[in-house]
Design a protein that fits this description.
This protein is an alpha+beta fold. It folds into two domains: 3-129; 139-238, Nonspecific Lipid-transfer Protein, Chain A, CATH 3.30.1050. It is 46% helix and 11% strand. It has seven helices and five strands, in the order αααααββββαβα. A five-stranded mixed beta sheet has the order 3-2-1-4-5. The chain starts with a helix and ends in a 6-residue tail after the last helix.
């Protein structure tokens, strides 16, 4: 996806998140993040937006920009201000900004546009869950989110998604031709895009459902599963992206 498209999604998803949070109320529980209230969710994403903005406007070589402190009063307005500032920063940033990143991307500014669009979209689902709703994403955007998760986060070293005995999972989208063959082993993950690959378990679903499922925001019955479901048990237990 182009930077302009990702920033437009960031703007749209962030506005939807704010509206859902206001509808639910800051004291509401967030079913998809069981330890959080809406206030915790909004504080988190507001801090992340400001952190990302600082990397775009004041580039550094590491992720050392500090996190802002969320206010106890006016939290939703504070969130909205930070969201608008991030959208503006990404739209105005020169294409050659030199900034720290932590996933592969054509350029730093494209990394930040993609990462913040998907960060916000997934947390928009959390805000929706607090009011008993679920988002339906544009298929192209959702497929890009699946790609960022698998080809980005899960090709990095580290993480808890490991298995002493190699396990294999095939991910197929009903509305996109991309396929991911994931081998989970003792040292981490190996990813290929072999459409003819054989795996112990296969999951398929429309992109929007797969996006939320792989981020552990939907239950297993939201996708079509064939093969050994213990591979899915492993994913749902250990496929976690941690924030400091």
């Amino acid at each position: 996806m182009q930077r302009s498209d990702l920033v437009a999604e960031l703007e749209r998803q962030g506005q939807a998140l704010g509206s859902a949070a206001a509808h639910a109320g800051v004291d509401a529980d967030v079913p998809t993040c069981p330890t959080w209230t809406v206030a915790d969710l909004v504080a988190h994403i507001g801090k992340v937006h400001r952190w990302a903005t600082s990397h775009i406007r004041e580039p550094v070589k590491t992720g050392q920009h500090s996190l802002a402190k969320a206010p106890k009063q006016g939290l939703l307005d504070w969130y909205a201000e930070g969201h608008v500032a991030l959208v503006d920063a990404l739209r105005q940033a020169p294409a050659d900004v030199k900034s720290w990143t932590f996933l592969p991307a054509p350029s730093p500014v494209e990394f930040w546009a993609r990462r913040q669009a998907h960060e916000t979209a997934i947390h928009r689902a959390d805000a929706d869950s607090a009011r008993g709703a679920r988002p339906d994403y544009d298929p192209g955007f959702a497929a890009d989110g699946v790609a960022e998760l698998i080809d980005g986060f899960f090709t990095r070293n580290g993480g808890s998604l490991r298995s002493e005995e190699a396990r294999t999972l095939l991910v197929r989208l009903d509305d996109d031709d991309r396929v991911w063959h994931i081998t989970i082993g003792p040292e981490g993950r190996e990813i290929s895009h072999d459409r003819a690959g054989v795996a112990e378990a296969e999951i398929r679903a429309p992109s929007s459902h797969m996006y939320l499922f792989l981020w552990n925001r939907l239950p297993r019955d939201a996708v079509q599963v064939s093969g050994d479901e213990s591979v899915l048990d492993l994913w749902q237990e250990k496929a976690q992206i941690r924030w400091r």
